[in-house]
Amino acid sequence: MDATAVIRALGALAQEHRLAAYRLLVQAGAEGLPAGAIAETLGVVASSMSFHLAALANAGLVTQRRQSRLIIYTANYPAMNGLMSYLTENCCGGVPCTDQEACRPPQPSANPEEHIA
User: Fold this and answer.
1) Burial of 35 (0-12, 13-18, 19+ CB in 10 A)
2) Which residue among 20, 23, 57, 89 is the one 20 to 30 A from 113 at the CA level?
3) Could you give phi then psi for residue 2, rounded to 5 degrees?
4) Through-space distance between the first and last CA atoms of the chain, rounded to whole angstroms
5) Domain ranges, ordered by start, for the chain
6) Which has the closest alpha carbon to 61: 96, 23, 90?
């Protein structure tokens, strides 16, 4: 994932209703949810929800498909994983993390002058 796509994805998620919708879609899994159900669950007016879902789709975070008269939205898991990988690729001082317990931020140096930029 390149920096432009990451910025677009983070920008799309930087809004309360879009973040809530995205989290709901991640929980819904591969089946996804119709736009109306998302709006109802989140207590957002349908027209506003359509705007927010379009922003998420534009950022590549969700996909949509037509099922009869409904538009079903699904989280784009490869995009989510790509975003997470981009954000964490240099964690732990470049040492690969194998699990949550192993992934810890690098410890500061005992020499305070090393922290001066």
Assistant:
1) buried
2) 89
3) -90, 165
4) 28
5) 1-117
6) 23
Choice among 80-84, 88-92, 103-107 with the minimum mean pLDDT: 103-107
For 1-117, which CATH class?
A: mainly alpha
Q: What whole-number distance in Å separates Cα of residue 25 and Cα of residue 74?
A: 6
Residues sharing a CB contact under 8 Å with residue 102, sequence separation 6 or more, in sequence order: 92
For 107, phi then psi, to 5°, come to: -80, 145
Determine the residue type at 19.
L
Least confident of 22-26, 47-51, 54-58, 92-96: 92-96
Segment 41-76, tens digit of pLDDT: 999 999 999 999 999 999 999 999 999 999 999 999
pTM recorded for the entire structure: 0.79
The torsion angle over the Cα atoms of residues 16, 18, 24 and 26, rounded to 10 degrees, is -120
- Taking the C-alpha atoms of residue 109 and residue 67, their distance in angstroms, rounded to an integer, is 57
